[in-house]
Amino acid sequence: MTAIQPALDGTLPEPRKTRTVQRAEDYETWLAEVWPKFIAAAATGRTFTCFEIADAHHLPDPPNPQAHWGRLMTLLKDEGYVRTAGWACTNRPTAHHSGVRTWKGTAAARRAAA
Question: Is the model's pTM score more than 0.85?
Protein backbone atom coordinates (compact mmCIF):
# COMPACT_ATOMS: atom_id res chain seq x y z
CA MET A 1 0.00 0.00 0.00
CA THR A 2 1.26 3.49 -0.87
CA ALA A 3 1.18 6.15 1.81
CA ILE A 4 -0.57 9.41 0.88
CA GLN A 5 0.94 12.58 2.27
CA PRO A 6 -1.75 15.05 3.43
CA ALA A 7 -1.43 18.72 2.51
CA LEU A 8 -0.46 21.28 5.14
CA ASP A 9 -4.13 22.11 5.76
CA GLY A 10 -4.85 18.43 6.51
CA THR A 11 -6.73 17.61 3.30
CA LEU A 12 -5.84 14.62 1.18
CA PRO A 13 -4.94 15.27 -2.46
CA GLU A 14 -7.02 13.89 -5.31
CA PRO A 15 -5.73 10.52 -6.47
CA ARG A 16 -3.73 10.74 -9.69
CA LYS A 17 -5.49 9.41 -12.73
CA THR A 18 -3.28 7.51 -15.08
CA ARG A 19 -4.27 6.46 -18.54
CA THR A 20 -3.75 2.82 -19.33
CA VAL A 21 -3.23 2.03 -22.98
CA GLN A 22 -5.14 -0.97 -24.16
CA ARG A 23 -3.88 -3.19 -26.95
CA ALA A 24 -6.17 -4.70 -29.57
CA GLU A 25 -6.21 -8.46 -30.07
CA ASP A 26 -5.97 -8.46 -33.87
CA TYR A 27 -5.21 -5.98 -36.62
CA GLU A 28 -8.60 -6.07 -38.38
CA THR A 29 -10.55 -5.37 -35.18
CA TRP A 30 -8.20 -2.54 -34.28
CA LEU A 31 -8.42 -1.06 -37.78
CA ALA A 32 -12.24 -1.13 -37.68
CA GLU A 33 -12.16 0.76 -34.36
CA VAL A 34 -9.66 3.49 -35.26
CA TRP A 35 -10.50 4.05 -38.95
CA PRO A 36 -13.65 6.19 -38.36
CA LYS A 37 -11.80 8.46 -35.91
CA PHE A 38 -9.04 9.19 -38.42
CA ILE A 39 -11.55 9.71 -41.24
CA ALA A 40 -13.36 12.25 -39.03
CA ALA A 41 -10.05 13.99 -38.25
CA ALA A 42 -9.20 14.12 -41.95
CA ALA A 43 -12.61 15.60 -42.73
CA THR A 44 -11.82 18.63 -40.58
CA GLY A 45 -9.00 19.61 -42.92
CA ARG A 46 -6.69 20.52 -40.05
CA THR A 47 -3.10 19.36 -39.68
CA PHE A 48 -2.56 16.60 -37.11
CA THR A 49 -0.20 13.88 -35.97
CA CYS A 50 -1.21 10.28 -35.55
CA PHE A 51 -0.67 10.42 -31.77
CA GLU A 52 -2.88 13.52 -31.37
CA ILE A 53 -5.89 11.67 -32.77
CA ALA A 54 -5.15 8.45 -30.88
CA ASP A 55 -4.69 10.35 -27.61
CA ALA A 56 -7.77 12.56 -28.04
CA HIS A 57 -10.02 9.53 -28.63
CA HIS A 58 -8.23 7.15 -26.20
CA LEU A 59 -7.69 4.65 -29.00
CA PRO A 60 -6.10 1.29 -28.21
CA ASP A 61 -2.67 0.37 -29.50
CA PRO A 62 -2.55 -2.08 -32.40
CA PRO A 63 -1.06 -5.56 -31.95
CA ASN A 64 2.26 -4.27 -33.34
CA PRO A 65 2.47 -0.52 -32.56
CA GLN A 66 5.86 -0.04 -34.22
CA ALA A 67 4.45 -1.07 -37.61
CA HIS A 68 0.68 -0.70 -37.54
CA TRP A 69 0.32 3.03 -36.78
CA GLY A 70 2.42 3.84 -39.83
CA ARG A 71 0.52 1.30 -41.91
CA LEU A 72 -2.77 2.96 -40.92
CA MET A 73 -1.56 6.33 -42.14
CA THR A 74 -0.26 4.79 -45.38
CA LEU A 75 -3.68 3.20 -45.98
CA LEU A 76 -5.42 6.53 -45.36
CA LYS A 77 -3.03 8.24 -47.75
CA ASP A 78 -3.47 5.54 -50.42
CA GLU A 79 -7.26 5.85 -50.11
CA GLY A 80 -6.96 9.61 -50.64
CA TYR A 81 -8.18 10.74 -47.21
CA VAL A 82 -4.95 12.39 -46.04
CA ARG A 83 -1.81 13.89 -47.50
CA THR A 84 1.52 14.63 -45.89
CA ALA A 85 1.73 18.14 -44.45
CA GLY A 86 5.23 18.30 -42.98
CA TRP A 87 6.96 17.44 -39.72
CA ALA A 88 6.48 18.27 -36.04
CA CYS A 89 7.73 17.18 -32.65
CA THR A 90 5.50 14.52 -31.15
CA ASN A 91 3.62 14.92 -27.87
CA ARG A 92 3.88 11.18 -27.16
CA PRO A 93 5.43 10.96 -23.67
CA THR A 94 7.69 8.03 -24.51
CA ALA A 95 9.10 9.52 -27.73
CA HIS A 96 11.07 12.44 -26.22
CA HIS A 97 9.78 15.01 -28.75
CA SER A 98 11.01 13.06 -31.77
CA GLY A 99 10.16 14.31 -35.23
CA VAL A 100 7.01 12.81 -36.71
CA ARG A 101 5.09 13.32 -39.92
CA THR A 102 2.05 15.57 -39.86
CA TRP A 103 -1.03 14.89 -41.94
CA LYS A 104 -3.81 16.99 -43.41
CA GLY A 105 -7.20 15.88 -44.63
CA THR A 106 -7.96 16.15 -48.33
CA ALA A 107 -10.99 17.50 -50.15
CA ALA A 108 -12.04 13.88 -50.73
CA ALA A 109 -12.14 13.34 -46.96
CA ARG A 110 -14.34 16.40 -46.51
CA ARG A 111 -16.70 15.19 -49.23
CA ALA A 112 -16.88 11.71 -47.67
CA ALA A 113 -17.88 13.23 -44.32
CA ALA A 114 -20.67 15.30 -45.85
Answer: no
